Amino acid sequence: MKDYKLFFIITILISFFISYTPAYAFPRHNPVPGGLALIPINTDLQPKVYFNKKPVAIISDQSKSYAMVGIPLTTSAGKQSVQIKWPDNSTENREFIVQPKTYQAQYLTIKNKRKVNPNAQDMERISKERVRKNKAKKLWSNQDVNANFLTPVQGRVSSIFGLRRFFNEQPRRPHSGLDIAAPEGTPIMAIENGRVIEAGDFFFSGNMVYLDHGQGVISLYAHMHQINVKVGDMIKKGQVIGTVGETGRVTGPHLHLGIYVNQTLVDPVFLLPEQKKQTK
Question: For residues 112 and 248, is the Cβ–Cβ distance under 8 A?
């Protein structure tokens, strides 16, 4: 049985590298709750940009530069603004408009009841893991962001960002990433150059890896079967960091991809090449 499973994984790897031609994408301006606002900025004057008092990444596309603002899912439609601080200590507020967006509901049945209603021992573990997750998402490093992202795994989009989720008919937080269904053992690639800042087995997220891409842009890869990297590793875009699994709170094998921008989880589709429409 083990030999058959190994053969199956090797077959997937071979077919993946033969058939896969990566496509890349620059982040797209889509100022909705859970989306991105790309605000043109003159980087010659070396400004610093803040949104809700959090530093904002500055990205470049050829000769143009933008402040890439992650908009929280809870943000109301209407005017918002970023604060720009110039080297001479002067400041400027620049406004942008958040457009309304409605997210649908999703109802899932979880067989492992503890993954819906953890016991006291589970909660102690979850609390410790929350500290690690918060530390990872708040990391700020000053290196430039290579904003030319690729899709991390081949597969079917099985769940989109922002869905109002119900596990076993109990309401939970909205879905905070993009789920791509694929067979266990399918390779997972880094969406951009980065450094591994967290990795391990988490109660809800299963085997998970965090990559720092610079200036508060952080990607996470959850429910992995195997992790092939360790904290501190420098990763190249497209490098295989592990494989698809069904660890943690899941209904089947898939990759959950989350992306933080200024400590805010945003819809990954606005940074990745266009995805195929969700199918059942």
Answer: no
Domain ranges of the chain: 102-270
Long-range (24+ apart) CB contacts under 8 A made by 274-278 are 274/25, 275/151, 275/157, 275/178, 276/156, 276/157, 277/157, 278/156, 278/157, 278/158, 278/159, 278/160
* Spatial separation of the C-alpha atoms in residues 123 and 28, rounded to whole Å: 38
> Which residues partner with 68 through β-bridges?
38, 57
Q: How far is CA 23 from the centre of its chain?
A: 18
Contact 151, 188 (CB under 8 A): no
pLDDT of 277: 47
Q: What is the pLDDT of residues 36-60, one digit of tens each?
A: 999 999 888 889 999 999 999 999 9
Q: Output the CATH code of domain 102-270.
A: 2.70.70.10
Look at residue 276 in the predicted model and tell me its pLDDT.
Answer: 54
CB 232 within 8 A of CB 195: yes
Short-list 218, 248, 211, 243, CA closest to 228 = 243
Residues with Cβ within 8 Å of residue 10, at least 6 apart in sequence:
none
Which helix (DSSP H) or strand (DSSP E) does residue 17 occupy? helix 2-19
